[in-house]
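thought: user wants a sequence for this fold. calling inverse folding tool.
action: design(structure=
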């Protein structure tokens, strides 16, 4: 049995034609929050329903991100070297988004694809506190220049308003798939089989009908492919949870809204709110000052949000 080797990131060769557009698309992805605009406005969300937003609007956010990338041509193609190429969505297969030629500019002997993006939205106030999507694509289905991109988002007024996105997580898709398998086989603690069955004869940019998913021999909890659980995103998630929403860190909003989801009756909610207030009055040794400040801001809006949850 071959012992798995820890994977390494391998980007396209910097003297290749693909490398230039690869680097510029990466720059465009990190600039997305500056360019992103949405006409979708959401009102009347109950505090008890706040965790469901990604299921309801995740696909819409992803569509709007692709539309934003199309509008950002001056960032990823400033000299119009790829004027016949554009981003197109193909949500039913891997990768979700392709940068490819139009039919008018495609040579019949070429695929016309420059790179692919596996695009995932992540509602920053999702109850799990981390992206919950599964990434099961086998490494052989990923070209060196393909990316996996996670877009965190919230509403600009937390419980209402327009979607607002934050700096994305961007990783090489091939490395991500290889690391997922390495974690499953070598890092994860288990007494069960760690073997993975890989599909054969797979190449980048597969057809919808192609079998391209790795399958674990033993997975009673159906956890294979739970991307965030591999630890690959840990550093990024720590930073993302500190994003400020109306001046308050996302992690504090998340803890606050869990009160409404986990506690059903008003007395239980009020008990939890009193507990939070007691933290605010604790000493600096018990609670760090930045947490005290954040809690004070959250609690200053408790009555408004609680009234909305109980009367709407």
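)
observation: tool returned 312 residues.
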């Amino acid at each position: 049995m071959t012992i798995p080797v820890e994977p390494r990131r391998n980007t396209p060769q910097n003297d290749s034609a693909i490398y230039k557009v690869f680097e510029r698309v990466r720059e465009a992805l990190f600039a997305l929050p500056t360019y992103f605009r949405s006409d979708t406005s959401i009102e009347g969300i109950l505090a008890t329903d706040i965790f469901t937003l990604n299921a309801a609007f995740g696909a819409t956010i992803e569509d709007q991100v692709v539309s934003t990338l199309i509008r950002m041509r001056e960032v990823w193609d400033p000299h119009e070297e790829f004027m016949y190429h554009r981003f197109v969505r193909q949500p039913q297969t891997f990768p979700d988004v392709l940068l490819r030629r139009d039919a008018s500019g495609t040579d019949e002997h070429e695929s016309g694809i420059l790179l692919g993006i596996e695009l995932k939205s992540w509602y920053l106030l999702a109850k799990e506190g981390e992206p919950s999507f599964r990434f099961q694509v086998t490494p052989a289905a990923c070209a060196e220049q393909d990316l996996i991109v996670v877009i965190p988002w919230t509403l600009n007024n937390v419980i209402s308003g327009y979607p607002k996105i934050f700096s994305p997580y961007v990783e090489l898709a091939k490395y991500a798939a290889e690391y997922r398998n390495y974690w499953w086989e070598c890092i994860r603690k288990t007494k069960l089989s760690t073997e993975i069955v890989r599909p054969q004869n797979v190449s980048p940019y597969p057809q919808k009908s192609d079998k391209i998913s790795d399958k674990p021999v033993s997975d009673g909890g159906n956890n294979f492919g739970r991307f965030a659980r591999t630890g690959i995103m840990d550093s990024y998630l720590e930073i993302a949870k500190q994003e400020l929403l109306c001046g308050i860190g996302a992690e504090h909003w998340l803890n606050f809204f869990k009160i409404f989801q986990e506690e059903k009756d008003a007395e239980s909610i009020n008990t939890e709110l009193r507990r939070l207030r007691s933290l605010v009055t604790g000493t600096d040794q018990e609670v760090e000052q930045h947490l005290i400040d954040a809690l004070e801001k959250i609690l200053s809006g408790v009555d408004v949000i609680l009234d909305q949850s109980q009367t709407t």
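thought: summarizing for user.
answer: Here is the designed sequence. The beta strands are 85-89, 97-101, 113-123, 147-155, 163-165, 169-172, 196-197, 215-216, 244-245, 248-249.
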